[in-house]
Amino acid sequence: MPSLLERTKLLHKAKDDVRLQRALIAQCKNDVLFWFDWFAWTFNPRVDGAHLPFNLYDFQRDVILLMHDCIKRGEPLIIEKSRDMGLSWMVLLIFQYWWLFQDGADFLLGSRTQDEVDQKGNRSTLFEKFRYNINRMPLWMCPKLERHHNGHMKIINPTNGNVLSGEASTPDFGRSQRYRAVLMDEVARHPYGDFAYASVSQSTNCIILLFTPFGKANIAYRMRSHEDIEWVDIGGKHENK
Question: Which among 127, 201, 212, 230 could disulfide-bond with 118, CB atoms 3.0 to 4.6 Å apart, if both were Cys?
Fold first, then answer.
């Protein structure tokens, strides 16, 4: 994977080279891991130099490819995780990849409350993670977002019309639209998890259930037993280098 210096050199070289920019965009469209390796970032305030290139571990590369395939095929996915695994960032960034490069790719983000979905300036929220990486991408790769493109609980790609929306997880979650994929973040703690899942399952074929274990009285635990749904258990503790 490229170092921070290698990333910086490539961006400097591509700054005024339109042919190189087009070649890099084409390579990103063809290879999701290339985009992650060269253009994805994450934030860790516990270390010096908190703005970090997303240097992927092998298990993260495998999960990214699995999510990419589930979105492509329109299949649900359950991911059980522990903390500090980078999973929330990974889901947000794979959605961003599709939002950038694939036409007709609308997505929905859901969590327990609106404040967990979107709160301007709070990088722990789902939308602020999404915005964080947009703000660190080169201008020639990411469309310019005017104020009406970047609102509360909604970010519109003005180039292809793709929309990232957000909602709190209610019994009517995601009922009114159709989506390429939906994230239900920390679904084991959603107060209306079963109703929300049933509601949004009418709006998409790809629901990504992301959760840390929280007892047995929740939809995440019950869905683990479904043989027709891909399930991944990401155990252990890793931190991005």
Answer: 127
Higher pLDDT: 149 or 189? It is 149
Cα dihedral value 187, 193, 194, 195, nearest 10: -140
Three-class SS string for 40-70? Answer: CEEECCCCCCCEEECCCCHHHHHHHHHHHHH
- Report the pLDDT averaged over residues 144-156: 95
pTM of the model: 0.89
Domains of the chain: total: 1
126: CATH: 3.40.50.300
Structure tokens at 172: 């009517």
d(Cα 179, Cα 107) in Å, to the nearest integer?
5
Name the more confident of 54 and 214. Answer: 54
Task: Name the residue range of residue 115's domain.
Answer: 58-234
Residue 199 lies in a domain: yes
Residue with tokens 């209306």: 192
Task: For 99-235, list the strands marked E by DSSP.
Answer: 107-111, 150-151, 154-156, 163-168, 181-185, 207-211, 230-234
Within a domain: 166: yes
